[in-house]
Amino acid sequence: MQEQDSKYFTRRMLDHVLAGSSDRAAQAMPEQGGFYTDLARWQQEKTQFFMQTPQVVGFAGEVAASGSYATFECLGVPLVICRNEQGELNAFVNACAHRAARVAEGCGVARRLTCRFHGWSYNLSGKLAGRPDDKAFAPACANDDLISLPVSDKWGVLVVGISPAVSQEAVDSALDDIGPVLAGYDFTGVASLETRRYEVAANWKLVTDLSHESYHFRVLHRESLAPLMTAHTVLDDFGRHTRWGFPLKGIERLQEQDESQWPSSFPGVINHTLFPSTLLITSGRDAQLIRAEPGSEPGKSVVYYAGVCRDPATRAESLAAYQFGGDIFSTEDLPAAEQCQQGIAAGREQLSIGRNEPVVQLWHQKWRQELQGHSSGE
């Protein structure tokens, strides 16, 4: 975040802390349990929001150097994103043309991507570069190359289309509404820390809702997060995307200082939610990514929690912070989501979203409007 934007955000947050207030919705909002359980809705969301919509999967810094590559998975599609010797960014289905085994694992730097099954190899432009016992196969052709996908690192994050329904133009413009905010963090200079994968017995929207309100801090996180943070929040809407944050305790001491002496980064956590369900979380110099996507049925989801650091000299400290947040997420947040899903499935048809949960309300409205617009042909 650029320093000017950070101070603007800090000033708004400080005003709320001193007033004992937060950004709030105009009124409470009812929600139906079917929002998380309806099969037809879930199938439409899966197709429209994930297969037909560009997906944010990582940070530009993870593949900033020539020869670098990083692997991801999105809705069951294995992905490898890499930068070739000419500096061109490419994305491919991570599947060999021989038997469809993966040609890359994890992340790193390499001249070729080589399948561990039979040793077929590809250059970082996706072209078949070699195969053992070459004469046993028909002459190489374009069908032996990796399957290319549209990809962009505009605004410092990696965006990819995982199906032919997604165009390069859609990928390039997916984050334009919030792009200048993201660019202020310069994610081209970060490096991968670790990625965790969870299979969760809860709808993907329930998991995403976890990171959209601070109302639960003092109860669910009373011994972990609550001693460090307050529940005051600031919210900004950027079309298909949002930004909201909450501060570290002690932010009120900034009122005693001139703004020129304030920290260059916001003293707290800022969550950027990128449509449809990727949380880009910034706190100080590091960042994390939470991706929630539909699982095998409406009541299940697959969730990824990834972290990056900016300074190799403080990698151990960054990893500890990433693990601290990840442990809270996995042992406190995700079990709560699973309990909610179970309760809804047991017949809790009417739910309530409070005025103090404006981000939850806003995203329910966004998801619903997107589906309605698609159905009406808009």
Structure description:
With 378 residues, the protein is an alpha+beta fold. The protein folds into 2 domains: 1-53 and 176-378, Naphthalene 1,2-dioxygenase Alpha Subunit, Chain A, domain 1 (Alpha-Beta Complex); 59-173, Rieske [2Fe-2S] iron-sulphur domain (Rieske Iron-sulfur Protein, 3-layer Sandwich). Helix content is 27%, strand content 28%. It has helices at residues 3-19, 39-51, 168-173, 179-183, 204-210, 217-220, 315-345, 358-375; strands at 29-32, 55-59, 68-74, 77-83, 89-93, 107-109, 112-114, 121-123, 128-130, 148-149, 151-152, 157-160, 191-200, 234-238, 241-247, 268-274, 278-283, 286-294, 301-309, 350-353. The strands form 5 sheets. Strands 13-19-18-17-16-15-14 form a 7-stranded antiparallel beta sheet. A 5-stranded antiparallel beta sheet has the order 6-3-4-5-10, with no helix packed on it. A 3-stranded antiparallel beta sheet has the order 2-12-11. A hairpin with a 5-residue loop joins β4 and β5.
Percentage of helical residues? 25-40%
Element order: H for helix, E for strand: HEHEEEEEEEEEEEHHEHHEEEEEEHEH
The assigned CATH architecture of the largest domain is: Alpha-Beta Complex
Number of self-contained structural domains = 2
Could you tell me the CATH topology label of the largest domain: Naphthalene 1,2-dioxygenase Alpha Subunit, Chain A, domain 1
Q: What percent strand?
A: 25-35%
Question: How many strands, which pairing sense, and closed or not: the largest β-sheet?
Answer: 7 strands, antiparallel
CATH superfamily of the largest domain: Naphthalene 1,2-dioxygenase Alpha Subunit, Chain A, domain 1
The number of E-state strands comes to 20
Number of helices: 8
Task: Name the poorly predicted regions.
Answer: none
